Amino acid sequence: MYDDNLGWTKLVIGELEVIKVPGSSHDSIIVEEKYHSQLAQIIKEHLND
User: Fold this and answer.
1) One-letter-per-residue 3-state SS of 5-47
2) 16 CB-side CA count, 13 A
3) Integer Cα distance of 9 and 17 in angstroms
4) Distance CA 46, CA 21 (A)
5) pTM of the entire structure?
6) Are 18 and 4 in contact (CB under 8 A)?
7) Considering 13, 14, 22, 46, which has the largest number of Cβ atoms within 10 A of its Cβ?
8) pLDDT in tens, 33-49
């Protein structure tokens, strides 16, 4: 069965937040550069919270 957290809840203690980058997939977000700046901005915003 597909799960948005891709099994990470088995490895994480506490809360797990899944944030989707529009148009990307689990594989494309890693290999397609067009998503890298968008992903970096999302990570930066969450680290600054």
Assistant:
1) CCCHHHCCCCCCCCCCCCCCCCCHHHHCHHHHHHHHHHHHHHH
2) 12
3) 10
4) 14
5) 0.62
6) yes
7) 46
8) 999 999 999 999 999 87
Take residue 34 and report the two structure tokens written for it. Answer: 């067009």
Whose structure tokens read 């700046």?
A: 37
């290999």: which residue's tokens?
31
**Tens-place pLDDT, residues 5-32:** 888 888 999 988 888 888 988 889 889 9
CB distance 29 to 39 below 8 Å:
yes
**What is the CA 17 to chain-centroid distance, rounded?**
8
